[in-house]
Design goal:
mainly alpha, 82% helix, Conserved hypothetical membrane protein, DUF6 family, EamA_dom
């Protein structure tokens, strides 16, 4: 059962990636619009958690740290959306999967976790994947603006995961998650004032289509997270992590089909050479995640 749940969640996350790109090309003119919606939804979620669930009691210092982690949660999402605006989504998602590598590195630095030789091999496969995608030939690798935006998104994810891993020693998942969501909302408040004109203009221009799109995409995201969490509760975390990487193959498959048959929805480079490079990179990264897990 957990295998089915994991694969469905991976597929939904892939669809969500495609929707993000689709929305950014048509209705979302500024990433802050989507981030704003995400922040308000997160605040509402945090409220429901504190009202309806038995949350852990933690010290003020750790509560503030959990709220601060929301800064990294916001940065990871914002930078990902910025990258998706300027890069093919099938090139963005593989770089996002470097989060496993980043978490390992930061865990070894801050949590004194030790690498095994198997993990070193896994790290090699993880790192080489994105570079295959961005290589023009065997001698030349062209790292674009989209790559660096995605990479720094991954760095933010790494700090988010490692700090939460520390906090989970003292509180349950839902408590930490709720404080994180509050942190995201607090980050958005000053940015809302800065980008007020851009956000207002975006809603005025595409509001009729934008609002339903954001509601649908965020509902899909919640569903994917729920299925992923359910899979973890029923199966092995390491194996769920490996199977979740099928998201890479789903993204490549969906973008290829859409580009060939429905180019008005999404258009990417679908030459045999490019698709082969992306697929090879995805398979190598799947192996890397397996060795690390």
């Amino acid at each position: 059962m957990w295998i089915v749940l994991t694969l469905i969640s991976a597929f939904l996350f892939a669809v969500l990636n495609i929707l993000d790109k689709f929305g950014l090309e048509r209705w979302v003119k500024h990433p802050m619009v989507q981030a704003l919606f995400f922040g308000f939804l997160g605040l509402i979620t945090a409220g429901f958690i504190f009202i309806f669930k038995d949350t852990s009691s933690i010290s003020l210092g750790r509560a503030l740290l959990a709220i601060f982690v929301g800064v990294f949660a916001f940065l990871s999402g914002y930078l990902y959306l910025k990258a998706a605006m300027v890069e093919e989504i099938s090139r963005v998602v593989p770089v996002l999967r470097l989060d496993s590598f980043m978490v390992l590195v930061l865990s070894s630095i801050f949590l004194n976790e030790i690498f095994t030789s198997r993990r070193y091999v896994g790290i090699f496969f993880l790192i080489i994947g994105p570079f295959i995608i961005y290589s023009e030939n065997l001698r030349k690798i062209r790292l674009t603006k989209g790559f660096w935006l995605t990479f720094f998104s991954v760095v933010a994810v790494g700090f988010q995961y490692v700090l939460n891993k520390y906090l989970l020693r003292f509180a349950d998942f839902w408590t930490v998650f709720a404080y994180n969501r509050i942190g995201v909302f607090l980050v958005i408040i000053p940015l809302l004032l800065i980008y007020k004109k851009d956000i207002k203009s975006n809603f005025k221009e595409t509001g009729k289509a934008l609002t339903p799109f954001l509601i649908f995409s965020q509902t899909l995201a919640i569903g994917a997270v729920f299925l992923h969490t359910s899979a973890i509760s029923k199966g092995y975390v390491s194996l769920v992590s490996v199977l979740s990487s099928a998201q890479l193959l789903f993204v490549i498959g969906i973008t290829t089909v859409l580009s060939i048959f429905f180019p008005k929805i999404l258009k990417e480079n679908t030459s045999k050479k490019i698709v082969l490079k992306k697929t090879t990179a995805a398979v190598l990264m799947l192996v890397g995640v397996y060795l690390i897990s």
